[in-house]
TrEMBL record:
<dbReference type="InterPro" id="IPR003594">
    <property type="entry name" value="HATPase_dom"/>
</dbReference>
<dbReference type="InterPro" id="IPR036641">
    <property type="entry name" value="HPT_dom_sf"/>
</dbReference>
<dbReference type="GO" id="GO:0000155">
    <property type="term" value="F:phosphorelay sensor kinase activity"/>
</dbReference>
<feature type="domain" description="Response regulatory">
    <location>
        <begin position="491"/>
        <end position="606"/>
    </location>
</feature>
<keyword id="KW-0902">Two-component regulatory system</keyword>
<protein>
    <recommendedName>
        <fullName>Circadian input-output histidine kinase CikA</fullName>
        <ecNumber>2.7.13.3</ecNumber>
    </recommendedName>
</protein>
<dbReference type="GO" id="GO:0005524">
    <property type="term" value="F:ATP binding"/>
</dbReference>
<keyword id="KW-1133">Transmembrane helix</keyword>
<feature type="domain" description="Histidine kinase">
    <location>
        <begin position="134"/>
        <end position="351"/>
    </location>
</feature>
<dbReference type="GO" id="GO:0005886">
    <property type="term" value="C:plasma membrane"/>
</dbReference>
<dbReference type="InterPro" id="IPR036890">
    <property type="entry name" value="HATPase_C_sf"/>
</dbReference>
<keyword id="KW-0597">Phosphoprotein</keyword>
<keyword id="KW-0472">Membrane</keyword>
<dbReference type="InterPro" id="IPR001789">
    <property type="entry name" value="Sig_transdc_resp-reg_receiver"/>
</dbReference>
<keyword id="KW-1003">Cell membrane</keyword>
<dbReference type="Pfam" id="PF00512">
    <property type="entry name" value="HisKA"/>
</dbReference>
<dbReference type="InterPro" id="IPR004358">
    <property type="entry name" value="Sig_transdc_His_kin-like_C"/>
</dbReference>
Length: 748
């Protein structure tokens, strides 16, 4: 053994040795060598550990433990009574060298002869976990400061080589912050200080919400990302939604990370009375028996070669397993090398309602053939369709079989690695005949050409998007577009953190004949404006995470850049206009804004006409004082359809809004419970902005009141009253938007 092994054993305070799987001592520290005369336990270097000694449990089990200990299993602890100086505790732990060889670390601890302290090991473990928790807190404080300072650095105009270094620090500090959070949770679990909530958990929004942050990574690899509930699943169960989300995010995120192509499927099904199984299957590299044995061990990745390709400390699955056990369940994995893995999480959940998931049947009477890469994805898609009332028929990809099926639609999952995808789609459409339809689910990046074909839905799939796409594809009816003259070209930078608003605004700008680049925060906006690409005008949201719109404007102006900047805000607070002008902005627009208003705001900066921003603002503010609206102003949604000339985009946007609504509502309640006014304000602001855009005026107004009360540091009771008002407005908005989606499906 080399210098590193010698250093390791010398660092142990008590006697310690490294042995091979046959029990031969390879290297020992000075304390071990000094104790060689103290009974037969401490064998010299180069010799084997002593065999069985009558009456001694340690010697009876020591050799067997050394030979059978596997990676990922906890250390074996034995009690030895042979030592002349008293009782010793023998601990045998698994080691793995850089070369992949297995070794054992054997340590002993001297104890005074007397009654055995059976709680000593537990006390030591608790002390270790308490130290880990304290260390995590101490690390997180400076890490948070570093994250903030790096964000400030990224907002400055930097040379390219310096920016690459700063971006690297940014990625590393965020990874360290996430690792610290996981360590704290692990420490809380081991010390018994992690409490669980018990409240209603809507299952479909929970599963579908986990897919959203992973969609870009999945699309870049061509992975089908899909979640489905089994036919016997209740709509809502009682549990801790935050911890369930944490467990599933770890497992699903791990599956997407290690899967290079194919699919990642999440399903939920009943298994006996009171037991539910959440299964996550993938087509990743798979694992052998040895890797499976240690997959839930902390700080371990199943494949050391994969660990070099993928970031991570190997803590996510270990934490997920402990959380599952804390919730009274269990988790296991089945896997085969080269064919993928399936993680199964069994939990004793109690239905919060007897209502089955998604009682509405918007696809009733539809007959749909399903073609997908694997039996698992076929089953999941069939579950989705049957939930919505359709008759789903698993199908093989052959023209003659498709023609023989009595179906009105073929639902087909594109294989992103198949270069003949376009031709096969055309063949399927032809096969179902002139009265039928074919809808392809594309797993590719939306920038590729194939997803622009009619009848193509991009993954990840959520039920409402799938239903809307199938209904739209069946009718193909569109409303007459609103006529708005195009502008004379130009390029606009849009800075908006809300992905719903960002997609809609970008589409509106492009409809005006103007090129649009979009960024999600102020730091990226400042970087873009100060970069090589010139912009005619910037649309800047005021409230964004990290660097907000005002600070980004100050950075741009401090660099001597005079590009016109128009503020976008949904607050309508007194003094907004003055703050914008003081920061260096050119004008101010209040959201929501219509396509004609947007054209009027942009036109002065793309032509020689005088600015009319103030008029556009006045018109927008005039709309805000109209009589109280219903839960959702359906006229505003239809107007948005006409402005965008794309009903499917509005339907998709509404579905996205609904899929995020439960998470936003939970975040609002959680912020109120934690008395976190900053989080309360930020969450209310984000929800208000999206609600106003989609015509949910009562919800937007309720969120605005919460936001203003949080800013004014109002009392807890007053805040709780307004948050409850948001809950009521959410219920009304959900009902109205579901009605809109059903009407859109019938009308096309």
């Amino acid at each position: 053994m080399g210098f590193a092994a010698r250093t390791l054993v010398e660092a142990v305070l008590g006697p310690a040795a490294i042995v091979d799987p046959d029990g031969r001592v390879l290297v020992a520290n000075a304390r071990w060598r000094e104790s060689e005369q103290d009974g037969p336990l401490h064998a010299p270097e180069g010799t084997g550990l002593a065999g069985s000694v009558p009456g001694c449990a340690a010697h009876a089990g020591m050799i067997n433990a050394v030979r059978t200990l596997t990676p990922g299993t906890p250390p074996v602890v034995l009690r030895c009574k042979c030592a002349a100086s008293g009782q010793q505790t023998v601990r045998i732990s698994h080691l793995e060298t850089d070369c992949g060889d297995y070794r054992r670390l054997v340590t002993t601890e001297q104890r005074v002869v007397g009654p055995v302290d059976t709680n000593a090991d537990d006390a030591a473990a608790r002390a270790k976990s308490q130290f880990l928790a304290l260390l995590g807190h101490e690390i997180r404080t400076p890490v948070t400061a570093v994250v903030g300072m790096v964000d400030l650095l990224r907002a400055l105009p930097l040379q390219q080589d310096v920016r690459e270094v700063v971006d690297g620090v940014h990625r590393s500090t965020h990874a360290l912050k996430h690792l610290t959070d996981d360590l704290l949770d692990l420490a809380r679990l081991e010390t018994g200080r992690l409490n669980l909530d018990r409240r209603p958990v809507p299952l479909r929004p929970l599963l579908e919400g986990i897919l959203e942050p992973l969609q870009q990574q999945a699309r870049s690899k061509g992975i089908l990302l899909l979640a489905a509930l089994g036919p016997d699943m209740p709509a809502t169960v009682l549990g801790d939604p935050d911890r369930l989300r944490q467990v599933l995010t770890s497992v699903v995120g791990n599956a997407v990370k290690f899967t290079e192509h194919g699919e990642v499927i999440i399903t939920a099904a009943r298994e006996g009375d009171g037991t539910y199984v959440l299964a996550v299957s993938d087509t990743g590299p798979g694992m052998d028996d040895q890797d499976r044995a240690r997959v839930f061990a902390p700080f371990v990745q199943a494949d050391s070669s994969a660990a070099r390709r993928h970031e991570g400390a190997g803590l996510g699955l270990a934490l997920a397993a402990r959380l599952v056990h804390r919730m009274g369940g269990d988790i296991d994995v089945t896997s085969e090398l080269g064919k993928g893995s399936e993680f199964r999480i069994r939990l004793p959940l109690e239905p919060a309602t007897t209502r089955k998931a998604d009682g509405a049947r918007p696809l009733a009477g539809r007959r749909i053939a399903v073609i997908a890469p694997s039996p698992r994805s076929v089953q999941a898609l069939c579950w989705l369709l049957e939930t919505a009332g359709a008759q789903a028929k698993p199908t093989v990809l052959a023209d003659v079989v498709v023609r023989q099926l009595d179906v009105d639609t073929v639902l087909w999952v594109d294989d992103s690695h198949d270069p003949e995808a376009n031709r096969r789609v055309d063949t399927i459409i032809e096969a179902v005949g002139p009265t039928g339809r074919a809808l392809m689910i594309s797993t590719t990046d939306p920038r590729t050409g194939i997803v622009r074909k009619p009848g193509v839905l991009t993954a990840p799939l959520v039920l409402k998007r799938l239903v809307a796409a199938l209904n739209l594809e069946r009718t193909g009816v569109r409303g007459a577009p609103i006529t708005v003259p195009k502008l004379a070209g130009g390029r606009v930078l849009l800075a908006e953190d809300n992905d719903i608003n960002r997609n809609v605004f970008r589409r509106m700008i492009e409809l005006l004949g103007v090129e649009c680049d979009a960024v999600p925060d102020g730091a990226a906006a400042a970087e873009a404006v100060l970069g090589a690409q010139p912009y005619d005008v910037v649309l800047m949201d005021l409230q964004m995470p990290g660097t907000d719109g005002l600070e980004a404007t100050r950075i741009i102006r401090a660099a001597g850049n005079a590009t016109p900047i128009l503020a976008l805000t949904a607050t309508a607070l007194h003094g907004d206009k003055e703050r914008c002008l003081a920061a260096g902005m050119t004008g101010h627009l209040s959201k929501p804004i219509t396509l004609p208003e947007l054209r009027a705001a942009l036109q002065p900066y793309l032509s020689d006409q005088a600015p009319v921003v103030e008029e556009a603002e006045a018109e927008a503010e005039a709309e805000q004082v109209e009589a109280p609206a219903p839960c959702v102003d359906l006229g505003k949604l239809r107007e948005l359809e006409e402005q965008l000339d794309d009903r499917s985009l509005v339907v998709t946007t509404v579905n996205t809004f609904l899929s995020q609504l439960d998470e936003r509502r939970s975040a609002l309640s959680d912020a109120l419970r934690r008395r976190d006014r900053n989080a309360l304000r930020a969450t209310a602001h984000t929800l208000k902005s999206s609600s106003a855009l989609l015509g949910a005026d009562p919800l937007a107004s309720a969120c605005a009141r919460v936001e203003q009360l949080a800013i004014a540091e109002a009392g807890e009771q007053e805040l709780a009253t307004e948050v409850a008002e948001v809950e009521r407005a959410v219920a009304g908005a959900v009902q109205a938007m579901n009605s809109y989606l059903a009407d859109a499906g019938r009308a096309g």
